[in-house]
Amino acid sequence: MFIRAYLRASAQDQDANRAEIALKAFAKEQGVRIAGWFCENESGTKLDRPELFRLIEESEHGDVLLVEQVDRLSRLGEADWGKLRGLLKSKGVRVVSIDLPTSCRALKVSADADNFTNRLLDAVNEMMLDMLAAVARKDLLDRKRRAAESVQRRNEADEGKAPEERGYRGRRVDTDMHARIVELKRLGMSYSKIESTLGVSRPTVARALKLAGMIGVGEAA
């Protein structure tokens, strides 16, 4: 049995490796070793994720896909989640998530455990995994709905007001700084180097490049 860890963050300015410490600590506590790490910055709402599918492709029957939380694996809609679950099942890959105790039991089942025990654990784990995947999807949709409602309320409150009387619209963009960030990126400088050179944060770098249509260009480390 090989254990492969999957790390995911939604945006380029987020650290997909953030969960690595937690996963290493979990593996040490369980007395197991992580054979490989697969990390990417992709939305959990997308089924097409290169590193996730590379992990699955390299896995064999009985191997484990380890994640910090189920929402790192999926915020997919029902149809896409069904496709991913079907692929994992056809490959015989077990999903183990730190936030799902029933899945963690899979690490403790020995190779000579009776078939009934294995089948029972698999059935319970599949049910709980489906439930948490559905919760992750609902949480995403709820946050999007609340954000949209907030914007609508703000717009309604500002209706008929002069621009200077309207509510807070966010911090004014430092156009000069954004121009410098874009120029350094065009010269091939990495995110980290731009941060240290200009004394700005990674979100600021990402925001400037996104506004310039350059997000994701070059390395993001």
Provide a short characterization of the protein structure.
With 221 residues, the protein is α/β, with parallel strands linked by helices.
Descriptive overview:
By secondary structure, the chain is of the alpha/beta class. The protein has 2 domains: 3-137, Rossmann fold, CATH 3.40.50; 175-211. The protein has helices spanning 20-30, 50-58, 70-73, 78-91, 101-104, 115-158, 175-186, 191-198, 202-211; strands spanning 3-9, 34-41, 64-67, 94-97. It has a 4-stranded parallel β-sheet with strand order 2-1-3-4, with helices on both faces. Strand 1 (3-9), helix 1 and strand 2 (34-41) form a beta-alpha-beta unit. Helix 7 (175-186) crosses helix 9.
Figure out the total of helices: 9
Largest sheet: 4 strands, parallel
CATH topology of the largest domain: Rossmann fold
- Helix/strand class: alpha/beta
Distance between the termini: 32 Å
Spatial strand sequence of the major β-sheet: 2-1-3-4
Let me know the CATH homologous superfamily of the largest domain. Resolvase, N-terminal catalytic domain
List keywords for this structure.
221 residues, disordered C terminus, 52% helix, 2 domains, Rossmann fold, 9 helices
Helices, strands, pairings?
Layout: E1 3-9, H1 20-30, E2 34-41, H2 50-58, E3 64-67, H3 70-73, H4 78-91, E4 94-97, H5 101-104, H6 115-158, H7 175-186, H8 191-198, H9 202-211
Parallel strand pairs: 1-2, 1-3, 3-4
